[in-house]
């Protein structure tokens, strides 16, 4: 599971505050996890698997609507590409968008 955070940290475009900083993005995300501000990606993916099983293809950590949000793109068992927005602090699903028809 440690590897999941390391892999995702490489593709997280903007850190907790949504602003680029002097530290690399993965360090800012890791710091937010260590301070308890957001859940580790492994926890988020476990929660997501329970409700929307599929193959994760991309994860981004964004600052949206005043929240830190994990945006997870995955391919469902039915072959649909969906994006699931999850509150990074609680793991609650904020929205689901079907990306297949874009």
Question: How would you describe this protein?
Answer:
There is one protein chain. The chain is an alpha+beta fold. The chain has one domain (2-98): Nuclear Transport Factor 2, Chain: A (Roll), CATH 3.10.450. The protein contains three helices and four strands; from the N terminus they run H-H-H-E-E-E-E. Mean pLDDT is 80; it is low at 1-22. The protein has a four-stranded antiparallel sheet, with helices on one face. Helix 1 (2-11) crosses helix 2.
What is the strand and helix layout of this fold?
Elements: H1 2-11, H2 25-34, H3 41-51, E1 54-64, E2 67-76, E3 81-87, E4 93-98
Antiparallel strand pairs: 1-2, 2-3, 3-4
Pfam family, one: PepSY
Protein name: Peptidase
Keywords: Signal
Supply the CATH class: Alpha Beta
Order of helices and strands: HHHEEEE
Q: If you compute it from the alpha carbons, what radius of gyration comes out, rounded to the nearest whole angstrom?
A: 13 Å
Number of helices: 3
- The order of strands across the largest sheet is 1-2-3-4
Look up the CATH topology: Nuclear Transport Factor 2, Chain: A
Question: Ends: how far apart?
Answer: 32 Å
User: What value does the average pLDDT take?
Assistant: 80
Q: Considering DSSP H and I runs of 4 or more, what fraction of the residues is helical?
A: 25-40%
What ranges have pLDDT less than 50 throughout 5 or more consecutive residues? 1-22
Protein name: Peptidase
InterPro entries: PepSY
Signal peptide: 1-18
Domain PepSY: 39-97
């Amino acid at each position: 599971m440690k590897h999941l955070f390391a892999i995702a940290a490489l593709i997280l475009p903007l850190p907790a505050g949504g602003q680029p900083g002097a530290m690399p993005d993965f360090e800012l995300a890791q710091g937010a996890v260590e301070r308890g501000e957001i859940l580790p990606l492994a926890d988020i993916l476990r929660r997501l698997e329970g409700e929307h099983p599929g193959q994760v293809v991309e994860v981004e950590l964004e600052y949206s609507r005043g929240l830190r949000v994990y945006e997870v793109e995955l391919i469902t068992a039915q072959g649909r590409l969906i994006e699931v927005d999850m509150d990074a602090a609680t793991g609650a699903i904020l929205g689901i968008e079907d990306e297949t028809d874009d």
